[in-house]
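Researcher: I'm comparing several assemblies side by side, and this is the next one on my list. It has 512 residues spread over two chains. Same procedure as the others: predict the full complex and return the structure.
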Amino acid sequence: MKVIQKRILAIDMGNHSYKMIEAVRKPNIRILRYSLCSSEDINGIGFLTKEMRKLQYLTKDAILSFHHKSMVIRELKLPEKYDFPFQQYIQEEMLRYETDFKEEYDYDYLILPERNSTGQNIAATAAVSRSVNREYIDRALRLGLKLKAIDVQINASLRVLHCLMDRCKELSPSSSYLMLDLGYDNTTVAIAYLGRVFAPKVIPVGCRCLEEESADPADYLLPIIRGCGKLIDTFTYSYADIPLRQGFVYGGGSYCRDILSDIQSHIALNLSDMHSFQAYFPEIPSEMDLNLYVNCFGSLLRKDETE
Amino acid sequence: MKDINLLPREYRRKSPGRFRIALFLILCLSAGPVVKYGFLEPLRIREEKMQLLVSLEAETGRFSGLEEDYGQRQAGLEELQNRVLAFQEMEERSPQYWQDVFRTLVDSLPTGASIRDFTCDDTLIAVSGSCRNDVTSTEYLRNLKSSGYFSDVRMERILYRSGNGISFSLNCTLEAGETGEDPGKAEEETRGTGNDPGKTEGAEP
């Protein structure tokens, strides 16, 4: 029976390391194996292929996720009276992006089931530089993977948060939560509210800058604190009725010394790292660090076209 | 509701559902001929052949006594053929046989003996003649007996005439089935083995 179970490989192609989880998604998620390959180890595709074989990853079907500064995530308000299909409208919007940024984009969208207060349809869109996207795709194909999807990391972590909210009664689904992904080269900050993501923002600083001997932690912390503050202000201004009291921090940067307390002291939010909620995820092995694998795990929770 | 997927369309594979449906349809379509020509048709042919075999067996059953009849007739025919051959042989050899028999009757006569009369009735030859004395007639009897042509030679009667000489009557029974072999040879063989051909049955003088 095990042989015919559909396995899937979720890969988070990070700047610092590749995180991989092989799992069976149906009927319930069952993690079979997971591993992390640091960029120092990844000298080339050959190493990773060999490593995957050594670790006995059996499936080639993969969901890929990566983060890049070219990633654009927006909610588009679709016009109420529009003669053409929404797709054309979104396409036009994307063309506008391409003209503004002088770059071609790969994009996808999702018409949200709920409308906004004015009764307009909302489309959640995500776009990424085509050249960057194709580079990651080529890399995955060279690994011999059969790509099923390319996931947006903030959406993946939002799925984990939803799952957590379902299981943890202390976390109210009607509240909003700050999400802070402390990556190696970039930091992503967003606010999750009512099953959506509010204005995710990529701050081009990462914990890499702390590795230098002469590094000043303020250079790392200040842009993040500033970005978080701005986002919180904008959100509370737009959604004053949705309380925002808690934030979740994850990513490799969450292990930097005193980082949580430092940020918390500036933004006046109760911050917790994702791994502290691991008890709510019995499907995750106890040794698996949720801070590092949250995007990977979130990719396993995605709903694909075939499902 | 599906999630956002940044994998471009050209990299996406066709839906496995559709693929499975297509595969299922192809299998269904190909299953018909396979079942028909792979299973049903051979079964039908086998059934037909079995029926044909049964009908042929039934037809052959009706003539089951024919073989026995043929055997009997064949045996009868062989017997008849044998008879015909025997008759042919008999016809072919009879003149020589009788000639030999008569020559034996004549040649066996000792000096001073003569045959007056003889009759032949199937296998019995009655010879009557005359000679000087009974010793000569007895010698004649012994000669005939030892000739091998007769299974039995009997002296039926000896008449002593008033003058010199006697009349005698002999009954000679021909050897049964004596057709092919040369009795002369047999006689020689008998003599060679020391059998005494002199013993005669009948009246002594």
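Model: For your comparison table: The interface with chain A takes residues 1-8, 11, 13, 15-17 of chain B (CB under 8 Å).
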